[in-house]
Write a structure and sequence with these properties.
about 180 residues; alpha+beta; 2 domains; five-stranded antiparallel sheet; 5 strands
């Protein structure tokens, strides 16, 4: 593959991701999640650049430099505590489901799947936020975490669209109750 073809492929991918962000109304969604940011660039530009970089199979260290911001700026945005990434993920999924709903055959039903998976860590001794959780299959308590997963699927289709994964735990190892960890 020549350099020109590779550059054209990167431009096509960037345009596709930009079209996707317009389709779901990402600019409106980001104001609900992050609010107004007064700077030279927006959260939309950073997310579009990040998605383009990841779909090209590059890490942040090997990414093509952007003239508007650096990779350090991207890391600062990703680590910013004011951004509610969980809410943004749910709002993007809601916009996608609204868009795809028109293309689903009326004889099929849209299904939401809620699963609480037990992640056991029986041999772990000093894992952070490890808790005793109840295993409903065996009827005993085990050391570990719970992962609450929300997914979407269409009836009679083997494709599952994972929307949200939340790790549930508690900070006291003697407690039997689980609390939200990632809020």
């Amino acid at each position: 593959m020549s350099i020109i073809e590779h550059h054209q492929e990167e431009l096509d991918l960037s345009q596709t991701i930009h079209g996707f962000s317009k389709l779901i109304g990402f600019s409106k969604l980001s104001t609900h999640v992050y609010g107004r940011h007064h700077g030279e660039f927006s959260l939309i530009q950073i997310i579009e650049w990040l998605l383009t970089t990841k779909f090209l199979g590059r890490s942040l260290y090997r990414a093509q430099p952007n003239p508007r911001f650096t990779t350090r700026t991207v890391r600062n945005y990703l680590n910013d505590g004011r951004t509610n990434w969980q809410r943004l993920t749910c709002m993007i999924a809601q916009a996608l489901i609204k868009y795809l709903h028109h293309f689903i055959d009326s004889r099929r039903r849209l299904t939401f799947i809620l699963d609480d998976t037990l992640i056991t860590r029986d041999t772990a001794k000093q894992t952070e936020l490890l808790a005793r959780t109840f295993d409903h299959d065996n009827g005993i308590y085990k050391k570990g975490f719970r992962a609450l997963t929300l997914a979407c699927s269409v009836q009679f289709d083997e494709h599952v669209f994972e929307i949200l994964v939340v790790l549930l735990s508690h900070n006291r190892s003697s407690s039997n109750h689980t609390l939200m960890l990632l809020y």
